[in-house]
Each structure stands twice: as C-alpha cells, then as structure tokens.
Amino acid sequence: MAIVYAALSLGVLGLIFGVLLGFASKKFEVKVDERIPKLREYLPGANCGGCGYAGCDAYAEAVVMDGAKATLCSVGGADVAEKIGEVLGVSLEVGEKMTAFVKCNGTCDKAKENFVYEGITTCLEVAALQNKGGKACTYGCLGLASCVKVCEFGAINIIDGIAKVDRDKCTNCGACINICPKGLIESVPVMKKVRVACNSKDNGKVVRSNCSAGCIGCKICEKACPKGAISVNNNLAKVDYSLCVNCKLCTKKCPTKAIRDITEKVEINN
C-alpha cells in the first residue's frame, strides 16, 4: 500500500506542478508582435549580417521593435523591401542597387613582384607583416582569397592574381568589404559604369615602377569630366557617383587605364 500511496502522491504533485507551470506560462507570457514572424518569412534566411544585425531573426525584430530601416536587406533587394512595407503598412523607397568592387588593377602581368612570397596564406596575416607580401605595391590586392572565403554567395574569386566580383551574384552584404585588411573593396552603384581600379596613394613615379595600370594622379580625368564627378586627392582619383552621368570621358583619357569602363560581365568559374 505504501508504494501505491507514494505513486498517487507523485501523480498528484505532478498534476499540481503541471497546472502551476501552465498558469505561469500564460501569466508571464511575453507577447510577440505578430509582424515579426511575418517579416521573418519574407527575409531570405542568409544570415549574412549585411543589414548590420546578427541575422534575419534579429533584423526582423529590430524593424518592428526598434524602428530599424526596412530597406537594409541587400540580399532580398527591392522585392523583400516591398513585402516588408506591406507588413508594416508603409510605402518604402528602395535605393539604387549596389555591388562590391575591388579597387585594384594589379594582375599578374601588370603588377611588379619584389619577390616570390611563400608562407602564411591569409590576407589579414600577410598585411600585418613588415614587407606585406611579395607585391611591390603595398596598396594592392594580395590575392590570398580572404574575401572569397567569407562570401556566402560565390560572388567573388581570385582571377589572375587579384579578387574579382561577379556583379550578378553580389548582394552587397559587405562581408568582403569588412574582411579586406587594405580597404580595397568598396560598395558602388551597379548602374554607374566608371570604376577607379586602384587604391595607391604613392606618387606617379612610384606607381609606374610598381604597376603599369595604377593611378598616377595626373588629374587628366579631373580636367576631362564635364560634371566635376571625378577628383584627385592624395595622388588617387575618386568618382562622386552622385554626379557621374556615365559619359566615360575619364576612362578614355586615363593614360594608364586605371579608370575603367565596366560594361562586360565578370565571369567567375567556381
């Protein structure tokens, strides 16, 4: 009988605790805004962090609870932004599509090598070395693929010694931009076809000795631009895309072809 009473006691206690836990879960339940799971359904689930949040769940919550911008999902683009707007009951204006671009022309046939580098094989580690690798231009792409490894969309690869971005695959998530130790990768408007493919701040004489396709700071592009969209500072040309009208005069005048007209798709074979 003692065993029976013990079993009954445990059963009753279990029932009581169950009821109490059920009551507590209802009483102290944290209500979730129904818009959060709806937004999460529309987000792509890439969890790339390009929006500035830890993942799609965090971003969905930030949009609803903290008023984060609803147009930050570069992977989903305009389609996702439109759906987010529908859930929030607002009309959203999606900005111009952007893509990553590697500011380096230093392919194997153009960039001088001081020596054949052998050793550690990540950009972050080599950039921290005193000699910064074997390339004569210390501003150029190391070609060690740190950016390739962090890209979840197969949009970047090493071609002829430097990183190249496939604009069709790029979602502008920012992972490659953040990982590059030399700040070589920037976000640019897809519809603008002019690119300064150089990042060197050296004077023209040094640039010429290091790379046949580098910017020498001659300012010919600056003088040729009818819209004032390109300027030279610290020996390097830079395009103001808010002023650029794609006339491409700068690309035609550039003596080293450091300023390029990007009209052809970059093919990447993974």
Describe the protein:
The chain has 270 residues and is α+β, with helices and mostly antiparallel strands. 33% of the residues lie in helices and 12% in strands. It has ten helices and eight strands. It has helices at residues 2-27, 35-42, 56-65, 77-88, 123-127, 146-150, 175-179, 204-210, 220-224, 249-253, and strands spanning 98-102, 156-159, 162-165, 185-189, 194-196, 230-233, 236-239, 259-261. The strands form four sheets. A two-stranded antiparallel ribbon has the order 1-4. Strands 2-3 form a two-stranded antiparallel sheet. A two-stranded antiparallel ribbon has the order 5-8. Strand 2 and strand 3 form a beta hairpin. The termini are far apart.
Helical/strand content category: alpha+beta
Number of strands: 8
* % residues in beta strands: 5-15%
For the largest sheet, list the strands in their spatial order.
1-4
Mean pLDDT across the residues is 86
Rg, rounded, reads 27 Å
Count of alpha/pi helices:
10
Summarize the biggest pleated sheet.
2 strands, antiparallel
Distance between the termini: 74 Å
Low-confidence stretches: 265-270
Q: What's the helical proportion of residues? A: 25-40%
| String of helices and strands | HHHHEHHEEHEEHHEEHE
Shape call: elongated
